[in-house]
Amino acid sequence: xxxxxxxxxxxxxxxxxxxxxxxxxxxxxxxxxxxxxxxxxxxxxxxxxxxxxxxxxxxxxxxxxxxxxxxxxxxxxxxxxxxxxxxxxxxxxxxxxxxxxxxxxxxxxxxxxxxxxxxxxxxxxxxxxxxxxxxxxxxxxxxxxxxxxxxxxxxxxxxxxxxxxxxxxxxxxxxxxxxxxxxxxxxxxxxxxxxxxxxxxxxxxxxxxxxxxxxxxxxxxxx
Length: 223
Prior knowledge:
By secondary structure, the protein is mainly beta.
């Protein structure tokens, strides 16, 4: 009888040990060198996790701006570029991680664009030079982008992980090593080593008769 109880106890202990840790949402807040919350910061966390198929991500165009200004996706993700404006846009990127161009279009292109290599992809519009957008493609299993309050929610198990931060205000727009991130029940605060003063995207310039006429002529000239 004692052997049976011991065998059952060992089996139960083994089952407990092999149960995977559940990922609970962890809140991370990002501030700049002056202690202000920063929007548009990408936090990626390295670790061992099963990669799930990524749904199609959305990078919209609204009011002549990319929405969101910063999008983080897993390597291999397809991104759709709908145009919610009533004018045409021509989206492109010359970034090494992904070079592509979507010719002048309205509505939503028939096929999304695949992002198969990690790295930063800077977006522009050939018609509206002030439009800037960023797609951060990462191999890391956990990542997120900070909101207006500087908050990011990560669905990662508690533990210690190597972390990386990225923001357009960083030197040469290069990712920075954020050290070892300790995730647990308590909120985490990270600091960018720069003061972020500029908006993520420039504001559209004031309309002028010449600019309006040029954009209309460009739009009407397309089939």
